[in-house]
User: Which sequence fits this backbone?
C-alpha cells in the first residue's frame, strides 16, 4: 500500500488484504474530495449535510458488515478501518453512519425475522431509508436497562407506545426508528420499529449541542403512538437482546475513537512542520516533538486494541468486558490526544478551519455515548475481580 495512514506507525493496515487496502485508499480519496469540504460548515451550522447521503450511498460503505443478497460481509478488520477513515475526516459523519448502519440496521439484522429484514434492509442499504436507534430516555441513561420507562401495550393488531427518548441520533429526519419499550404485560423490554409519520410520534431537535454538531440528536415523544403488530422485531424480547446489538456497535465506537485521534494527530504533524517560530518550524522544538510522540503512542496503542477487537469479532469470540475496555480506553486516550493537538496549534487551535477544535469537542461525545467510561469501567472491574460494583 503506497499511502499508509499517517498514524499507523506499526503498520496494522498490512493485516488487510491487498484488495482491502486498495478499497480503503479509494474510500480515503472519496472522503477527502467529497466529504471533507462540507464538514466544517455543517458543524458550524449544526446542520446535517443532506446532500452527502446520495454520495455515501454511491460509495458502497453501508451494509458491509452483513451477509446480504448473496454478497458476503467484509472482514471485521476492514469495516473497523472504514469507521476509522470516516472519523478521521469527521466524527459526526462516522456517528451518522454508525447509527444508521450499525445500531439501526444492526438491530433489524440481528433481531428481525427474515421477512422483517426483507421489508426494511434493502432500502436502508440503498440509503433511501435512514435509520435511528431509540434506547436512551430523559430519565434513563446509564441505568436504562433497569430504568427504561417507555411502555408498549398490545391492542389487537397494534402496539401502543407511550413515553420519551432522548439523544436519538438522526432522530429528526430518520424514516425508521428502532425503539425499545417495556411490555406492560410481562415487564420485558421489547424492540419495535416506528416509522416516520406514525400517529402520536414527534421528534424535536436538541439545540445548542457543542460536540458532533452535524449529528441531529432529538428528543422523541410517543403519545398513544400506534404501530402495526408486525413492527415488533421478532427476536427483540428482553434487554439481553438489546445487548447483542450493543456488543457489536461498542467496538465500532472504539474504531471511531481511533479515527478522531488520527485526524487530530495528522493536523498537528502538518502544523508542526509548517508553523515557524524563533526562525524555525515548531516541529524542531523538543517539547513539540514530545507532544507528537505522546499522541502517536496513544494512537498506536488504541489502534492495536481495536485491531485485536476486530480479530476476536472475526472469530465470534469477543466478550463484553473486552469491548468495554476497548471503548473506554480508546476514548479516554482520545481526550488526551485531541487536547495535545489543540495545544500544539496555540491560538490557531481554537479556529474551526484548522479542524482540531472540532476533534477536541467531538471526542467528548465519543467518550460518553454508548456507555460512559464509568459504566464500561464497572464492566471491566467486575471481570477483573468477579465482584459487581454496579449499584
Ligand atoms: C452525542 C450523543 C449521541 C447519542 N446518540 C444516542 C442514540 O442515537 N441513541 C440512544 O439511545 N442514545 C444516544 N445517546 C445517549 C448516550 O448513550 C448516553 O448519553 C449515555 O449512555 C450516558 O447516559 P446519560 O447521558 O443519561 O448520563 P447518566 O447516566 O445520567 O450519567 C451521568 C454521569 O454519572 C455516571 N454514572 C452513572 N451511573 C453510575 C454508576 N453506577 N457508577 C459510577 N458512575 C455512574 C456516568 O458515567 C456519567 O458520568 C447519545 C448521547 C450523546 C451525547
Assistant:
Amino acid at each position: 500500500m503506497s499511502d499508509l495512514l499517517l498514524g499507523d506507525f506499526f503498520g496494522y493496515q498490512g493485516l488487510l488484504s491487498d484488495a482491502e487496502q486498495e478499497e480503503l485508499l479509494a474510500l480515503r480519496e472519496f472522503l477527502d474530495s467529497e466529504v471533507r469540504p462540507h464538514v466544517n460548515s455543517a458543524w458550524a451550522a449544526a446542520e446535517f449535510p443532506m446532500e452527502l447521503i446520495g454520495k455515501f450511498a454511491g460509495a458502497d460503505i453501508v451494509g458491509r458488515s452483513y451477509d446480504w443478497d448473496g454478497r458476503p460481509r467484509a472482514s471485521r478488520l476492514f469495516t473497523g478501518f472504514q469507521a476509522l477513515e470516516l472519523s478521521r475526516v469527521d466524527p459526526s459523519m462516522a456517528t451518522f453512519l454508525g447509527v444508521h448502519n450499525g445500531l439501526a440496521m444492526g438491530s433489524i439484522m440481528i433481531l428481525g425475522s427474515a421477512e422483517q429484514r426483507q421489508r426494511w434492509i434493502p432500502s436502508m442499504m440503498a440509503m433511501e431509508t435512514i435509520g435511528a436507534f431509540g434506547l436512551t430516555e430523559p430519565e434513563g441513561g446509564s441505568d436504562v436497562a433497569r430504568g427504561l420507562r417507555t411502555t408498549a401495550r398490545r391492542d389487537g393488531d397494534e402496539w401502543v407506545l407511550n413515553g420519551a427518548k432522548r439523544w436519538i441520533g438522526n432522530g429528526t429526519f430518520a424514516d425508521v426508528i428502532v425503539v425499545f419499550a417495556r411490555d406492560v404485560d410481562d415487564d420485558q423490554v421489547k424492540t419495535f420499529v416506528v416509522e416516520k409519520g406514525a400517529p402520536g410520534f414527534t421528534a424535536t431537535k436538541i439545540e445548542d449541542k457543542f460536540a458532533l454538531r452535524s449529528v441531529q440528536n432529538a428528543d422523541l415523544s410517543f403519545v398513544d403512538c400506534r404501530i402495526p403488530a408486525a413492527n415488533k422485531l421478532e427476536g427483540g424480547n428482553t434487554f439481553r437482546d438489546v445487548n447483542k446489538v450493543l456488543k457489536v456497535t461498542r467496538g465500532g465506537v472504539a474504531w471511531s475513537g481511533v479515527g478522531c485521534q488520527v485526524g487530530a494527530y495528522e493536523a498537528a504533524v502538518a502544523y508542526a512542520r509548517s508553523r515557524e517560530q524563533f526562525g524555525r518550524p515548531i516541529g524542531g522544538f523538543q517539547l513539540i516533538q514530545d507532544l507528537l510522540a505522546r499522541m502517536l503512542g496513544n494512537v498506536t496503542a488504541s489502534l492495536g486494541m481495536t485491531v485485536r477487537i476486530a480479530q476476536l469479532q472475526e472469530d465470534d469470540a469477543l466478550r463484553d468486558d473486552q469491548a468495554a475496555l476497548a471503548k473506554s480506553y480508546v476514548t479516554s486516550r482520545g481526550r488526551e490526544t485531541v487536547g495535545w493537538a489543540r495545544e500544539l496549534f496555540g491560538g490557531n487551535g481554537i479556529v474551526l478551519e484548522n479542524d482540531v477544535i472540532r476533534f477536541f469537542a467531538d471526542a467528548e461525545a465519543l467518550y460518553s455515548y454508548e456507555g460512559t467510561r464509568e459504566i464500561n469501567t464497572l464492566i471491566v472491574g467486575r471481570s477483573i475481580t468477579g465482584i459487581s460494583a454496579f449499584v
